[in-house]
Amino acid sequence: MAEKFVRPILTYADEAHRLNEKSGMFHNMGENQIKEIIHAAKCSVFFIDERQRVTLQDIGSAEEIKKWAKKEKARITEMELVSQFRCNGSDGYLAWLDHTLEIRDTANFDMEGIDYDIRIMDSPVKMQELIIERNCASHNRARILVGYCWNWRKEGVNDPSVHDIKIGDFEISWNLKNTATFAIDEDSVHEAGCIHTSQGLEFDYVGVIIGDDMRYENGSVITDFTKRARTDQSLKGIKKLYKRDPDRALSMCLKKCLGAQKSEEER
Fold first, then answer.
1. How far is CA 137 from the centre of its chain?
2. Average pLDDT, stretch 38-47?
3. Alpha helix locations (H) across 24-89?
4. Where are the alpha helices (DSSP H) in 10-123?
5. How far lies 26's CA from each of 6, 30, 242, in Å?
6. How many C-beta atoms surround the C-beta of residue 80 within 10 A?
7. CATH numbers and ranges of domains, the chain
8. Is the whole-model pTM more than 0.85?
9. pLDDT tens digit string along 73-122?
């Protein structure tokens, strides 16, 4: 006798801004992920930040969720998550990131009074050494994240000796594809993650390498999509993507910037 399906009372959809229209590897299954989540339970909760949409396939928006909820004659309640534990619970740091990257104007134009450790480093080798040191001290809670300016070589997706990212005497592989647990694998501190492997996760310490797709020039933050890797599918805004990497850390963020030599004022 077939078991009767019991509809759950509640479902949570975290990172709901990353929902797609259809499911499956080839996006050809089902009808609509938002509709299906609403159907799955008596009450559905969507955690959403529309500024964190990454690809053109991401359909998660407040309006889209409301549209399907109204079609199902569901009662809609909107609430705002006003604080978080990430970034040491510092809303000021997140506002500073927005201001610095020129995503939006905020009152946090500097780090004064913000309890968060951020450092600009000239050497990716020294940054990696410090991240490895902090990873040991934090029980595997530190990682390196890199802007998607280097192609992901198919012939080396499971080989840690194949280094996709090369900056002078610094070399590192993108995180290996033979595991889905980059955030907790002990050896992945020696690999580089990206927006696709870090979104929705958090670490105690993060080292971020900003590629040539973003630079500071003539008093403004300039982006250049032509410097992105051919294999990159994240087309929702370079500044927003780089914001996602520095805000993964609870306690400290280290940054390495490429491009032209920065003056002291620019840094």
1. 24
2. 93
3. 33-40, 62-71
4. 33-40, 62-71, 91-100
5. 29, 11, 27
6. 4
7. 10-71 (no CATH), 86-257 (3.40.50)
8. no
9. 999 999 987 666 666 656 777 888 888 888 788 888 888 887 778 888 88
